[in-house]
Structures are given as structure tokens and as C-alpha cells.
Design a protein that fits this description.
about 325 residues, alpha/beta, six-stranded parallel β-sheet, 10 helices, about 20% strand, globular, ligase, Pantoate--beta-alanine ligase
Length: about 325
């Protein structure tokens, strides 16, 4: 069954865990059996990208667990926390339909906010109480420059989730390139005994990176938004044909020529070191780079815009 098809089963076989103590008991049973555990943290509204992560977990591990938690601490007060898609019933059917090598998703961690934030949580940073995690040096640029509290929220909730689940492997998608760098540094610096696995970005047929926020867009807008990926590919092609060190400005100029043909608001278009995310003056073969962008796309029949991110890795 494909990820976007719904299971006809009326009783999903996935064990639903709602508390930290339930997850820890489940994990202890896996530990006693010396089973490898794979973990896919999500905010729900699942699509084929999430399914590719979950399927890889099934292939790599004895047991697999997925979490669905819309994390308030990574949203600013003016952002779309309340409007973020919540489709738990559909998500559960999708997860229940997955099967790899005869293995299925074993558990879904579905906590309430009070379970993850015992001291309570507000999107106003100045009013937050309790322990929070910041990963300095790779959180402030790119997405962090536009959404200052975002990676503090991501790092905090991922630390909590890894502390609860203690997975052998945890899975993320390359679409969120900066998030992957932040989490890799988090795991390394806090000495967390988990292997971070990053899988390639899953894309729509037109090239648009799959995202839960695509649910806000009509098919026509999604087709227009495919120009984001086309611009990144133009930059990649320009670099590949140069066959040597290429000034970053030249690559960005090529990509801007494509993006300027649409009425999109480009927040940033950056070329960064693949490990540190420092801005690069030039891209060198062997070192490579991450080309990343954030673009606000108009929604039909609305004054709101949907914020889309994407990236390509240069080698």
C-alpha cells in the first residue's frame, strides 16, 4: 500500500503511547530483548517524505516508533501554531499501512503538551519557564535569522524526545538541512547515544519538496512553486559545469534569474558550508556546500502566504 492510500483496517495494530512513562516501559522491553529501536519524530500531517523515513527505520531496526507532537516552543507568537495541520486519524492509518520486510510500525508516541512541558509553555520566550536547549553557531543564520526562537524550540523538543525514547537510530529528511546540522551537533555535544540518519528530500512529481505546509496550497500554486526547486537545480547545474571553484555570488545570480519570474517573496538564498553553515565566498569541489532558500508563496483567496524551504547539496 502506498503512503498516500488509507488502510481499510478498522483497528490499527500500532500501540499508542501517550505518556513518557509508557514510552519508557515500551523501550525497556526492547532493551531487555536487545532490540535496535528506530525513531521518527514528526509534527503529523504525514506525507511520503515521512513515510520514507519510517520505512527506512523498519528496514534498519528491530522495532520502530513514530512521534506526533506539534511543538509550541518552535513557533513565534505571530506564527501559525493554531493553523498547523492536525490529521491524527489519517496519520495513524498511513502509519498502519507501512510494511517493510514484514515489519510494521510498532508504536506511536502521541503526548499532550503538558507531558512534554511539565512547567507549561507559551510562544512568548520571555515568559517561558524551565529548561531549554540552544545549539550555538549553527542556529542563528538562515532559518534562525528569520525565526529567532525556532531552533531553540527544535533543539529542546528533540532533546526531550531522544531522552524519552533513547533510540538506536533517529531519522530526519534533508529538506530541513539546517535542522539536520543542528541536531547532529546537539547529539554530538550532549553525548547522546543515538545515530542520526539523514535521508534525501522526497519531492512531488513537479519537483516541489514535500512538506506538511503544502496542504495549504492548491495544485496550481504547488505547480507554480516548483520553480523553487528549478532555481536550485539551475544553481547546481551551473556549479557542475564550471568544474572547479565557483564564486557563490555567481551561483546565486543564476538562481535569482529564475525566481524573479514569480511573485514570490524570497526571504533568503544562501550558500553555506555543509557542516558549519558558515557563508561561503566560493564553493570548492571536495568541500561542497548547501544551497538553501526560504520563499513565501501567496495562497489562493487569502492574504496569507505559505513559507516553503528547500535546499540542494553540492559536492
Amino acid at each position: 500500500m502506498r503512503c498516500d492510500e488509507k488502510s481499510h483496517s478498522m483497528t490499527p495494530q500500532i500501540k499508542i503511547l501517550r505518556t513518557v512513562s509508557q514510552v519508557r516501559q515500551w523501550r525497556l522491553e526492547c532493551l531487555l530483548k536487545q532490540q535496535k529501536v528506530g525513531f521518527v519524530p514528526t509534527m503529523g500531517a504525514l506525507h511520503k517524505g515521512h513515510c520514507s523515513l519510517a520505512t527506512q527505520s523498519l528496514k534498519d531496526n528491530d522495532k520502530s516508533i513514530v512521534s506526533i507532537f506539534v511543538n509550541p516552543s518552535q513557533f513565534a507568537p505571530h506564527e501559525d501554531l493554531d493553523a498547523y495541520p492536525r490529521t491524527v486519524d489519517d496519520d495513524l492509518r498511513i502509519l498502519d499501512s507501512l510494511n517493510a520486510d514484514g515489519k510494521k510500525i510498532d508504536a506511536l508516541f502521541l503526548p499532550k503538551i503538558s507531558e512534554m512541558y511539565p512547567n507549561g509553555i507559551t510562544t512568548e520566550v520571555s515568559q517561558q519557564r524551565g529548561a531549554f536547549v540552544s545549539v550555538k553557531g549553527c542556529s542563528e543564520q538562515l532559518e534562525g535569522s528569520i525565526r529567532p526562537q525556532f531552533f531553540r524550540g527544535v533543539a529542546t523538543v528533540v532533546t526531550k524526545l531522544l531522552n524519552v525514547v533513547q533510540p538506536t537510530n533517529v531519522y530526519f529528511g534533508q529538506k530541513d538541512a539546517q535542522q539536520c546540522v543542528v541536531i547532529k551537533n546537539l547529539v554530538k555535544d550532549l553525548l547522546i547515544d543515538t545515530n542520526v540518519v539523514v535521508l534525501p528530500t522526497m519531492r512531488e512529481e513537479n519537483g516541489l519538496a514535500m512538506s506538511s505546509r503544502n496542504a495549504y496550497l492548491s495544485q496550481e500554486t504547488k505547480d507554480r512553486s516548483s520553480i523553487i526547486y528549478k532555481s536550485l537545480k539551475r544553481g547546481e547545474d551551473y556549479y557542475s559545469k564550471a568544474k572547479g571553484t565557483v564564486p557563490s555570488k555567481d551561483i546565486i545570480d543564476v538562481m535569482n534569474e529564475t525566481l524573479q519570474h514569480e511573485d514570490f517573496e524570497v526571504e533568503y538564498l544562501s550558500i553555506s558550508h555543509p557542516d558549519t553553515l558558515e557563508d561561503l565566498e566560493a564553493v570548492e569541489p571536495g568541500v561542497g556546500a548547501i544551497i538553501s532558500t526560504a520563499v513565501r508563496v501567496p495562497r489562493e483567496n487569502s492574504t496569507e502566504k505559505t513559507r516553503l524551504i528547500d535546499n540542494i547539496v553540492l559536492h
